[in-house]
């Protein structure tokens, strides 16, 4: 369980069931209200530079309409308590917590039974840290609300949160933000960027979401030391890029995904490039899939092991113009006579079964079956059926790349 933030040194004690809004309206900048365990009626609005604190069993409960807690003043602070519910309307963005104040702070808050969790809109310098947001968990992912959303927000932090059973953690039209050390489980998009530039995604754990991280129409995204696991099913993607450039992904673990990395027309703009270094692609159906993205992408010192297919190019093309250097592949059959750790012959990926699946995606149904295994064997043994190369790494590693994810910790 996430820790409750410390009680402010000087604050006004508030008894359970008290109407909180009149006290907030009367508060001055720098004041704090500290709630006792119990239930308090919402909605409430926290003014500028006022703090509302409570332990986890101090519950601000929705009236059943609209947003439950609003932070609209600059420097407003919400700490520790539980926000229970919101109105039920998607069109008016009914939320547990709605932040508009510059420099506002939301920490250690538990959110439950709300349409939207924590919404941050048209502001900057906001901190959303150490909260536990539990979505509806409904069977239709699209009909859940977003757990955490940044909209037209910049220079803000989303850190150390636990998100469960929601829809998305969204960063839209928002630049210069950091998403760090969050755990996102059982949603649609673990984190979804759209038209958002120069953001950092570090040390997060994404598990059993439909998609781990998806970057759309964005530039300058950096992803480091994230775990992207269990994105399975027909649409399962660990990390996806669409029409995005100058993306750097390094030291990430992409494990047990239908597709580890999906590149769709990325990079888009001339002069942009994407770099993937020291990432681990493990236990996936396909490590990397290219769709109109065979140029200005570089793969250096990555590890491809225990995947059904290492790389696939949709439409049956190749990735020979992609930069491949120093990667390790578990199906490399070369040698290292000078013992420098680098293969003396290039690694070339040639797969008749992979080529067929790339041309006819419905054949992916037969992955792991004797049928495709025989097709693969024919392509390796019979020159008549030998497929063209898909990629070439001139300096493949001989030994597996060591996994060096650092422990997650707050700064």
TrEMBL record:
Signal sequence, start to end: none
Name of the featured protein: Nitrous oxide reductase family maturation protein NosD
InterPro entries named among the record's database cross-references: NosD_copper_fam (IPR026464), NosD_dom (IPR007742), PbH1 (IPR006626), Pectin_lyas_fold (IPR012334), Pectin_lyase_fold/virulence (IPR011050)
Residue ranges annotated for the Periplasmic copper-binding protein NosD beta helix domain, each copy included: 144-325
A Pfam family of this chain: NosD
Gene label: nosD
Organism: Pyxidicoccus fallax
